[in-house]
Design brief:
alpha/beta; 34% helix; two-stranded antiparallel sheet; globular; 6 helices; Rossmann fold; 240 residues
Length: 240
């Protein structure tokens, strides 16, 4: 397949201790494996346009492992808080890949980023893109995938409906809260990636310590168990 102007996304908002470093390493891993990942998502010789979504602070940069520059796009912010984003490079008849994390931060909330990404995907489809793949390292509202109280909203499903409404063909996310609920929420194709190998590599430095993997809630229990087994195999020692 031919790649046209690969993309970088920027994860710049703060978080818990180790959050930024972990996201930086995950980001680098995604960049280095992006061509292979796109080949898995869209095999064959289709022409591919890669466009950046909002708040990409690396305009004019090159994607790691590639000499291709970023695809050009325009973002405008209006005085009343409204905004628009449009592609400046031709996308007609191409497969377009949009990379954008939806983690809220001090400058923009998750809702702001979500709206920008949805509007940008809609603009790409209106501009003639044959297919749009959203690559979202952090999916907002992924934890609200079930009702815990009467009349609770299932927001993960509503977010999925929004992406489908603007014409998203494939949705790729990293370490979603509950992979089964993530897949069930979308009617379009989904791809759930994991950064567990990065954390396994980090944990190897802790060899000899007594390690225990804990899930923060029932939704993450399956992911925690998969990570525990991978860690146990890599360290060749019991992990609880």
């Amino acid at each position: 397949m031919r790649l046209h102007r690969p993309v970088l996304s920027q994860w710049r908002e703060g978080g818990p201790p180790g959050f930024e470093e972990g996201h930086r390493r995950c980001h680098e891993d995604i960049q280095s494996g992006l061509p292979q990942m796109l080949e898995l998502i869209c095999p064959g010789g289709a022409s591919t346009a890669l466009c950046a979504a909002s708040n990409c602070g690396t305009r004019g940069s090159s994607c790691a492992g590639s000499c291709q520059p970023l695809a050009k796009h325009e973002e405008r912010q209006f005085e009343d808080g409204e905004h628009k984003t449009r592609p400046l490079d031709p996308v007609g008849g191409t497969d377009v890949y949009v990379v954008q994390s939806l983690h809220g931060g001090p400058s923009e909330s998750a809702n702001d980023k979500l709206c920008r990404l949805l509007f940008f995907i809609g603009a790409l489809k209106d501009a003639g893109a044959a297919r749009v793949t959203a690559i979202v390292p952090y999916l907002c509202y992924a934890r609200k995938d079930r009702r815990t109280k009467p009349n609770d909203p299932v927001i993960t499903r509503y977010v999925a409906s929004l992406f489908e409404a603007v014409g998203t063909a494939v949705f790729v996310a990293l370490d979603v809260h509950n992979p089964a609920a993530f897949e069930n929420a979308f009617r379009c194709r989904t791809v759930a990636l994991t950064a567990a190998p990065l954390f396994v590599d980090y944990a190897k430095a802790l060899s000899g310590e007594h390690l225990c993997v804990v899930s923060p809630d029932p939704g993450g229990a399956k992911r925690a168990e998969i990570f525990r087994l991978a860690l146990e195999s890599a360290l060749n020692q019991p992990v609880w």
